[in-house]
Amino acid sequence: MAISTLLMLIFLPFVLSAFTENVCFPGPVEDVSCIQKASNGKFCYYPTYPGTDVSCTQYPQFSSVMAAHLAQGHSIAYYGPDNVFIGDASWPYPPDAGIIYLCGSGTINGAYLSFCSRPIGDNVIDSGEYCIVGLPMKHVDDGCYDPSLAIVNASATPSLVNGITQAPSATAHGPVTTVTVTAQSSSRKASSPGTILIIGILIFVYHAALV
C-alpha cells in the first residue's frame, strides 16, 4: 500500500496537468503562436503578432467568456459554460468535459493578443472557431506578461468588450510607432508681467512706509 501510494504521488503532477509540453496553433510557420513553459516554470501564451480586433465580431459566442478572461489574472485559463473560471494551465481536461472554453493572453513587441476557443483535450489548441482580440488583461498574476506595457502600433481608441473598458488594440504587422511620454517639469514657469508689476508695487509701498 505504501509503495502504490508513493508511486501515485510521484506521477500525480503529470496526470493532473492540462499542459505538460509545448503546444502550438497549427498553421503557417510565420503565424504559429504557442503555449509553452517560460523561465519561471509557468506555461504562458506567446503570440507571433499583435491582435487587431477589439471584439469577437466573427464569433460573437465567445464575447462573454473573453470579457471574463480579460477581467481575471490567469493568462491561460479554462471556463465553464457560464463563463466562470474553473482552472489555469494545470487544470486536467476531463473526458466528459461538456462545454469548456480555453482562453490565453500574451504580448508581442509591446502589443497584445488574447484568444478564446473550445479545447478538445490536454496539450491541444483547437484551430476551429475562436475569437482573437488585441487587448490585454486587467492584471496578470502568473507573471507571463506585463499588461501595463506601452502599446506600440496603437490604432484604435479604448473600447468596450461586453461592458469592460479595455486598452487600445494594435495593428498587426504595421510600422512601429515610438511612444514618447514627456514628463511635466517640477519647476515653475517664469512669472507673468502682471505678477512682476504687483511685486514692484509692494516693494514701492514698503520703501515708502520706511521713509
UniProtKB/TrEMBL annotation:
Protein name (database record): Uncharacterized protein
Keywords: Signal
Highest taxon, organism lineage: Eukaryota
Signal peptide: 1-17
